[in-house]
């Protein structure tokens, strides 16, 4: 009985885990898209508030990760807005 | 029975008939001791016939073999031709494959070395820790009419950024200038750690820009400030401004969206070392470059709040309304209290900014209160709608700034008078009631590279007092002045 239960558990996990992982991947992709669209709306206004908005191609994605932390602090952006603009700039 | 017997008889007779000539032929061929051939010199016809048959047989076999040889030779020729053809095809195919391989390798290499792939490789090689150098640099030429000063100048302000993780980063800014009496002048403008605790709260520890209004923290870098000069009340503290530019302390700051995207509120709270002045006992003393001190009985406190009421999607521009305070204990029981407002409105090519600042410093028994105030209004219009290429990168500027205080303390008041050597451009900026109209023209080569041209009209008002560090009054005049400045600034 114990052995049957273990086998059943393994089978259930073998089905549930990949499905959950696939769902998580889909959700992450959808979140990236949402952030990108939001970042595209915010970038001209927020990044052009003090200086001329600089295009994403000026820096590498890794550099943008660091620069956005500096700009989030300097310009006082919320975390969500900073992530959205970062997603947009990294993709450019 | 009779038939069978007859059959057997016929069979025996037939065999005898066949065997007799054969044995005779064999006897004729076999060598014998007796001189049989001599005794019988004429070959028998049967022998000749047999020989002929054998010859014919051999001829036939020879013909067959000749044919075989011919066939073999032909096949060899065919194989040789096929081999040559095969070799040619092989070489051609080889060349074609090499070409394909080369093209594939070139494409692969180019793809691998594309900007994004190379960046990806570098990112994965460097890892999650990022060190980035940004900042700005500028080359300037200045001319002042009253002092007849004309000089080139250069400034370099790198910003070092280091990201340890998604929530922890370090930052430092160096200010490097060329003074007239040294090879260089290096200052540590800022050095701080950023801890992003939540989406709405950040702690900032170290030396940072004073969080008051917009200009000090956000608008002063060379490539951001549309003018060469700073507005009068927001110059650096040791250049005659009304507030210390930087403060050592701890800040809690953040922002949140209270409505639709674009409708935000940001806040900043700070506690730090008190403001430090060069001549604190005198009314009108300038601020020191930094406020690090070993004996701080008092602290400074600052707060700022900014509201952005217009949503992005409304396409009505960006409006900012802000209020700030900076309060510092500068002497036991005595306070310096500052407060101010800021406004900014940006709509497409048009920008307007304005800030007002008021400070009051209790002097106790030393003197009556050291009250100062200042403001500026700035307008900008980008000619992006011009249908002429290159001209549509130009931006027209106007700024009016003013500052009022009872008294000014100058290290060397004689610099107010012509020739005015040693002053930062016009001496009329250092009188108690300066007024300045600045007209500007910017040309943007890129979002972070700008050539600026500025024409200042100094219109100081009379009144107030000028003293040296010992408190000795100095008589001064307030003539109008003109200055021209041009600067090429780059943000990197």
Write the layout of secondary structure elements.
The complex is a heterodimer of chains A (92) and B (492).
Chain A: H1 2-46, H2 61-75, H3 79-91
Chain B: H1 2-29, H2 36-39, H3 45-112, H4 115-126, E1 130-144, E2 149-165, E3 168-177, E4 185-198, E5 201-209, H5 215-219, E6 246-257, E7 264-272, E8 300-308, E9 318-331, E10 334-347, E11 350-361, E12 370-382, E13 394-405, E14 407-409, E15 435-446, E16 449-458, E17 465-467, E18 473-474, E19 481-491
Parallel strand pairs in B: 14-17
Antiparallel strand pairs in B: 1-2, 1-19, 2-3, 3-4, 4-5, 5-6, 6-7, 7-8, 8-9, 9-10, 10-11, 11-12, 12-13, 13-15, 15-16, 16-19, 17-18
Look at the structure and give the mean pLDDT of chain B. Answer: 86
- The Cα radius of gyration of chain A reads 21 Å
* Number of E-type strands of chain B: 19
Number of strands of chain A: 0
The biggest chain-chain interface is: A-B, 33 and 51 residues
Tell me what you see in this structure.
The complex is a heterodimer of chains A (92) and B (492). By secondary structure, chain A is mainly α. Helices cover 79% and strands 0% of the residues of chain A. Chain A has helices spanning 2-46, 61-75, 79-91. The model of chain A has no long low-confidence stretch (mean pLDDT 90). With 492 residues, chain B is α+β, with helices and mostly antiparallel strands. Chain B has helices at residues 2-29, 36-39, 45-112, 115-126, 215-219; strands spanning 130-144, 149-165, 168-177, 185-198, 201-209, 246-257, 264-272, 300-308, 318-331, 334-347, 350-361, 370-382, 394-405, 407-409, 435-446, 449-458, 465-467, 473-474, 481-491. Chain B has a 16-stranded antiparallel β-barrel. A three-stranded mixed β-sheet of chain B has the order 14-17-18, with no helix packed on it. Mean pLDDT of chain B is 86; it is low at 26-39. Classes of the chains: A mainly alpha (92), B alpha+beta (492). The interface between A and B is large, with 33 and 51 residues.
């Amino acid at each position: 009985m114990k052995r049957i239960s273990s086998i059943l558990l393994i089978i259930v996990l073998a089905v549930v885990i990949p499905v959950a992982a696939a769902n998580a991947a889909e959700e992450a992709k959808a979140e990236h898209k949402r952030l990108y669209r939001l970042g595209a709306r915010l970038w001209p206004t927020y990044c052009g508030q003090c200086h001329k908005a600089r295009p994403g191609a000026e820096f590498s994605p890794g550099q943008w990760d660091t620069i956005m932390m500096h700009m989030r602090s300097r310009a006082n952006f919320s975390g969500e807005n900073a992530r959205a603009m970062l997603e947009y700039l990294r993709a450019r | 029975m009779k038939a069978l017997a007859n059959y057997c008889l016929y069979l025996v007779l037939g065999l005898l008939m066949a065997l007799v000539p054969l044995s005779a032929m064999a006897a004729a061929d076999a060598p014998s001791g007796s001189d049989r051939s001599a005794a019988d010199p004429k070959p028998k016809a049967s022998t000749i016939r047999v020989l002929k048959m054998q010859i014919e047989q051999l001829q036939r076999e020879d013909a067959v073999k000749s044919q075989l040889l011919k066939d073999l030779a032909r096949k060899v020729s065919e194989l040789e031709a096929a081999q040559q053809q095969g070799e040619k095809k092989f070489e051609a195919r080889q060349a074609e494959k090499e070409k394909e391989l080369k093209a594939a390798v070139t494409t692969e290499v180019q793809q691998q070395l594309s900007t994004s792939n190379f960046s990806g490789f570098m990112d994965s090689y460097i890892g999650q820790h990022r060190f980035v150098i940004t900042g700005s640099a500028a080359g300037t030429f200045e001319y002042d009419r009253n002092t007849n000063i004309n000089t080139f100048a250069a400034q370099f302000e790198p910003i070092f950024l280091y990201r340890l993780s998604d929530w922890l980063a370090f930052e430092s800014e160096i200010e490097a200038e060329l003074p007239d009496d040294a090879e260089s002048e290096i200052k540590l403008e800022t050095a701080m750690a950023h801890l992003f605790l939540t989406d709405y709260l950040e702690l900032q520890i170290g030396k940072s820009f004073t969080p008051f209004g917009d200009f000090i923290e956000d608008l002063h870098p060379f490539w951001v400030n549309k003018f060469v000069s700073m507005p009068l009340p927001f110059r650096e503290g040791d250049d005659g401004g009304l507030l210390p530019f930087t403060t050592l302390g701890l800040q809690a700051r953040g922002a949140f969206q209270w409505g639709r995207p674009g409708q935000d509120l940001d806040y900043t709270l700070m506690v730090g070392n008190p403001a430090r002045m060069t001549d604190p006992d005198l009314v009108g003393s300038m601020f020191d470059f930094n406020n690090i001190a070993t004996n701080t009985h008092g602290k400074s406190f600052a707060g700022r709040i900014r509201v952005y009421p217009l949503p992005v999607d409304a396409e009505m521009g960006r409006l900012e309304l802000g209020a700030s305070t900076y309060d510092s204990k500068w002497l036991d029981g005595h306070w310096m209290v500052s407060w101010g407002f800021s406004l900014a409105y940006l709509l497409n090519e048009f920008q307007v900014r304005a800030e007002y600042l008021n400070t009051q410093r209790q002097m106790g028994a030393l003197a009556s209160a050291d009250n100062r105030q200042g403001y500026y209004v700035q307008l900008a219009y980008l000619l992006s709608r011009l249908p002429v290429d290159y001209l549509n990168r130009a931006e027209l500027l106007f700024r009016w700034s003013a500052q009022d205080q009872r008294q000014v303390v100058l290290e060397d008041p004689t610099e107010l008078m012509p020739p005015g050597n040693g002053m930062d451009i016009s001496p009329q900026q250092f009188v108690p009631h300066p007024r300045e109209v600045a007209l500007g023209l910017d040309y943007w080569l890129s979002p972070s590279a700008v050539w600026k041209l500025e024409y200042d009209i100094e219109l100081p008002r009379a009144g107030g007092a000028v003293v040296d560090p010992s408190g000795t009054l100095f008589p001064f005049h307030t003539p109008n002045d003109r200055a021209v400045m041009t600067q090429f600034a780059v943000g990197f």
